[in-house]
Every structure is written in C-alpha cells, then in structure tokens.
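ok trying this again, last paste got cut off
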Amino acid sequence: MQKWLNHEVFQNRTINLQKSLKRKPEVGSQKFFRFRDRPSKSNVIIMKHINHLNTKSYFINRFGKLSTSYLFYQMQDIAWEHAGILGFGYDNLKKDQQFWVLSRLLVKIDRRPVWGENFTLETWSRGTDGFYGYRDFNFVDEQGNIIVQATSSWLVVNAETKRIVRLTEFNNFPKYEESVFGENSGKVNSPQNEDDLQFTPVLFNEIDINQHFNTGRYIERIIDSYDFGFHEKHDLVEFEINFIKEGLPTDRLAVKKQFVDEKHHLCSVVREVDGADLIRARLVWQVKN
C-alpha cells in the first residue's frame, strides 16, 4: 500500500544502466552478502530473496490463471518483505519519517501460473542512481523456466516535507548486478482521446491504510475497463505503469484509453476534479490462439 508523489522531474530522467548477462535462476537458491552498516540481528543478509508460492483460487481470473492484479500484489509483498530483511523496510524508514513510493513498473509475461500451480518468485535490489532504487523480479515455474519478469523503480520520500530522499544518504545501499531487461522502466505518454469519460466514485475497498487509493486497484480499474468479449480474445502480455499522483477517498475517477494499434494501448486513470492523470499505463495485448 503506497502513497504517490507527483514529481515530474523524475519522469524525464534518463537512466544509463550497464547491461548484465541474463541467466536462468537457480530455483530455491539464495544469494548472500556481508552488510555491516545497517542494524540487523545478523550481518549476513539475503541479497536475492525467494518465495515459494502456490496459485490460490483467489489469485486467479475467470480463465483459471494468475490475474494481473494478484501478479502485482505478489511482487509488492515480496518487495516490502525483502526491504525489511535488508534493513530498509517500512519500520526502518518510519523511524525517520520516511516511506517508499513505487514510481514505475515494467512487466513482461510469457505465461501465467494456473490454478493450483506451484511457482517461485524471486527479487533483488539493483542499487540506486541516487534517487531511484531499482528492483527486479522473476517468476519461475517448477521446471525452472522464467515465465514472468519485471523491473521497478522506487523513491524514498520524507513524510513531513514530501521531498525525495537521496538514497546515497543510506550506507551501503544494496546492489546485485543481474538485470532482467538490461534497462529500466521508462516514461509512459498520456493517452489522447476526446471521448466523454465515465467518472465513478472511489469505493471503500479501493482505499488503503494510508487513506489513499490502493496501487493494485488502479490496475484493476484498467483491466475492468475492457469488456468480457475483449478478454475472451486477448491476453495481456506486457504492461508498463507510471504512478504519478495520489488518489483520495473523495475522488471520482475514470479510465481514459487510446488504441495506438490493435496490440498497443495507452491508458490512464483520470481524476474528475482537475483532469489529472493519477497513473499512466502502456499495455501490449496478444490475440489468443
């Protein structure tokens, strides 16, 4: 559950990242390193964090596969969990009146786990450029095949001033060189569409403990804006999201869409009161066989 920050300067940053060699993960393995400068019960910290999961009935969509929103929730949970292990979690930052903000996310899906299927989710920090903290993910099936990959960009914000905290202020911010795509998630353009928007109120279950619109619910609003017929014929195989502004309980929101072509769509969740995009998403759809 996140708070969002509107800081457009970061939408225009160009991040030059050294590409690293892709490899298959060792399922069930864990990478360790010495990390002495952060408080911890032990100075041996897991650098690559792994969870072994099962596709529960409440994780799936109507086709019996891991839904897009629960795919996101799994990544969100393991990210927070690993940050805590590394000494940079919610409780650690809260002491200094700071919190993590998810800014950008890029996900590519080869196939989705099906109902009852076991899979492994692994994550690691790729370090920082000073402001963004980078984190990657692999979903791995029982045969060792990578079936979903993702990269994300995070910011630390001061809760009082709402200013971004430079991650170089943290001693030994963790870094592991492996990069799933060899690049970071980029800027997503706002969709261009003059059609009238259908605004609806924010619902009770869409608000998180911080009294802001829940991250995963943005994704659900976008997915639900496509009708049953479209989902019967198309699979979402890639999506990229920029989280821009925070949504509030009193907001009325709508989904705006631009069909660039049959496969490539741009979407945003728009707030009625000021017409602002709260998030922007680039979706890539594939026609089902």
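PB: full thing came through this time. The chain has two domains: 1-185, 188-289.
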